[in-house]
Amino acid sequence: MVKLFIFDHDMTIVDSSYAIMAGFNYVARKVGLPEVSHELTMQYIATPLPTFCEGLLGDYRPEWVKLYRERMAEYERELIKPFPDTVSTLTGLHDMGIKLAVVSNREHPSSALRHSGLAKYFDAIVGAEEPWGHLPYKPNPAMINTLLEHMNIPAEQAVYVGDADLDVITAEAAHVRAIGITAGNFSHEEFALLGVWKSIDTLSELITIAEQDA
Fold this sequence. Notes:
- With 214 residues, the chain is an alpha/beta fold.
- The chain folds into 2 domains: 4-15 and 82-212, 3-Layer(aba) Sandwich (Rossmann fold), CATH 3.40.50; 17-79, DNA polymerase, domain 1 (Orthogonal Bundle).
- It has helices at residues 17-31, 38-43, 49-57, 62-79, 86-95, 109-116, 142-151, 165-174, 188-194, 205-212; strands spanning 4-7, 14-15, 81-82, 99-103, 124-126, 158-162, 177-181, 198-200.
- The strands form 2 sheets. It has a 6-stranded parallel beta sheet with strand order 5-4-1-6-7-8.
- α6 (109-116) links the parallel β4 and β5.
- It starts with a strand and ends with a helix.
- The model has no long low-confidence stretch (mean pLDDT 95).
């Protein structure tokens, strides 16, 4: 029985791709490089920031990351949007008595969640620096493990929902079931090869999964 749904943030419950693209295009303009497309941005979704920088701008330089971060708060307020069925799904799961949480490699995911209006739907929001501080990034399972301990929920009663292989690897390391969502770069077939419990195209499918697992 699922008592806790844990969600990744970017491209799982929100479309952050346009905000990320805007951030890298800001850097590109500042340093005299060509702007990047949404298609290219999507190719690097869920990769580490250095890989993102190399893929989109052709190199990784700390000063470029600093430029990127200095404008991202503005772009996130304007451009990050919940997927169409995010709110209805979170509401439906909550009404079933299921606890909800976010575990993200963002250092302070609550800020982005407040901007998108989603923070109020979650019982816990965990990032590398909040609320407990200095936890290792995924795929290290520390954020999930700490969350489960804090909420006193066994791993076998939790599910982690994410859009990338990184999320699946993290879930497996924490001994929780993984659900892959195809909103990012991974297909059902690719998720199956990674050994997910289930894969979905839209968040609304989680309602049926929760009902069947009740």
